[in-house]
Structures
1.
Amino acid sequence: MTRIVTPVTDLLGTDLPIVQAGMSWASSCSTLPLAVSNAGGLGVVAAGPMRLPDLERTLDEMAAGTDRPWAVNLPLYRADADKVIDLLLERRPPVLIASQGGPRRYLGRFHAVGTRCLHVVAGVEHARKAADAGVDALVVVGAEAGGHPPPAMVATQVLVRAVTRAVASVPVIASGGVADGAGLAAMLALGAGAAQFGTRFLASTEATVHDAYKRAVLDAGVDATRTVGHGLGVIRALGNDFTARMLELEATGAEEALRRKMFQASTLKDAALYGDVAEGKVEAGQSAGLIDSVLPAADIVARIVGEYQSALAGLPPVIDA
């Protein structure tokens, strides 16, 4: 069995420092998370858009489908987040990854039932606060990430290094712009204990998004994404008719009410479930430009490990003159 041992793998009990991002609709199921966990990484159920009965069924499928660690991602802004928390406390997932809210809201209760608690942060100050609250690890999201990048748009390489220097006692999972084993090696070199892969796993056979969405990811270059919704909850998505209209409104100083109306008229669901890649929010990271194939998730994990080994072997040695 192949293992890469880091503080994160020791904490979570995984074989590999590879975390599949919780992606609404793409991993709001058991299929993709089970495949990643059974391959040695950490599969993550995206609870954000799931109805409670669907989430309950998925949690049962996860528990029955693997004896390896797995996680649930919960955005705390969800209107019925307290009901989701109650369900998760009953089901006791091995790992909780919470985002967009404070950790004190949930931390003590999940620690009491044995769940490891990871918190998503996008800056050094928030990282310090989460660490002081007692989280088990931090997921540090940089500007290259798809979906919701940090408002300050600090690049992953800089932000991860800043957080690992500021909060050295808490393991870090780096997220944003990582699509292969070379990226994993880079994040571990910066002091992270694992890397989170989102867009790479969008292009997997198990990801439950429309084929048109996956094709859009494969067709994208590294410069194909746009950030829109500034002041409204900025997102990074592939450029399309929707992002073009948003960028025009932002460039001409349109009133917030008009921008908000346009922003809310388009949804991730339109793109992910219905394949509307022209008008929907095709959320993806800059790493889409590094992806050229749709593969089974287990093959993606194995490929990342092989690329990681090649990256390490290719580093030049230190030569004493």
2.
Amino acid sequence: MKNIVVIGAGTMGNGIAHTFAQKNFKVTLVDVKPGNIEKGIETIAKNLDRMLAKEKISEDEKNQTLANISKSTNLSEVAKSADLIVEAATENLDLKLKIFTQMNEFAPENCILATNTSSISITKIAAATSRPDKVIGMHFMNPVPVMKLVEIIKGYSTSQQTFESIFEMSKTLGKVPVEVNDYPGFVANRILMPMINEAIETLYNGVAGVEEIDTVMKLGMAHPMGPLQLADFIGLDVCLAILNVMYDGFKNPKYAPNPLLVNMVMAGKKGVKSGEGFYDYSESKKAEKVAKMFLK
């Protein structure tokens, strides 16, 4: 498999495209909005520049990685020659089912169809296609070029051949693939999201403030990032979507999203991506931090 199509140029999509391209796969980054693609390519270039500055890659490797990436808004055209299509769109079931219907229609019979979903049933997604044996989950972690883990999730009908192909391919990407069964939230988010939700519950009940909660988890539990800061980084809308999938799937109140999380998402406070979540990421706040550094 050498020709890879990645659908969605957002944080996960451009990270997945970057990762494949850096290992000399030919990648086409697809998005319905040309502006999203340009922004995605810019992000990849900036991340490569950081790697270059840290001497993790050479100038030639950076240029070759960028040369390995093509851009398109036309899935029907680029899917025709794809060996693997990785869907990395928003965590929304209806949208994913629509995309997989299109992937199934346009891609050749031998093409594997993968989803980067962080919680939605692979079996349910595969049912939208005529090739459920070739549908699989590849749940990368954010930031994709840095994080080693990939959850490899088989749906009810995913063939062993498909599984083994994707499992081995993940190793060629420099990742550590882990086989996971098809249940809501899989492993990573089934454990992570209740912890984040409980941190929000702790804040909601007035037990401690945002920074205090994160400090306890960083210094007391050796977490590199506090749960509220991590939620901002993931995207509060994404956290809410994952919790809703698990709540609907298990019918267990422990997965019910906290009202504070629901209200923040409805108010447009989605974390880093919106400029504000549990922390303030606005330009004015950044300028304030810089000023404080110089005033010290």
3.
Amino acid sequence: MSLITRIQSWGDHHHPKWLDYFRIALGVTLIWKGIAFALNLHAFTNLMNQVSIGTATSISFGAHLIIVLHIIGGLLITIGSRTRISCLLNIPILIGAVFFVNMRDDIFRPYAELWLSYFVLLGLICFLIEGDGILSIEYEKNKTFKAGNGQSII
């Protein structure tokens, strides 16, 4: 049994219900930050005006990728579908937010973004291991379509 299969199996069997509410809140937070990021693209526009065309294209692609991954990944995490892959795709963005973007700000100022980014990163790592949980679309789908030996019951 591979390490990933063992982690998935452990996460599927040790999942309290309150953790599902935390997963839903995490997904809504990612959607909210994706929309907020999309509404503040003027900062990237100012940055792109100061650099060459190749760098500006990279900045634009990265910004749009962050928006798409946050909104779609947050939606999938909220409803409990493909939670692990959504977390895996959002973790590099949050690592960048924690260590490169928000670290230079004063972390003790009111409403510092570093703490939110830190807790979202920890939540993503948690659900990368834990998976969907009971309150999810995947749980209902697996409960309906699978018997104990993996055969379809329909």
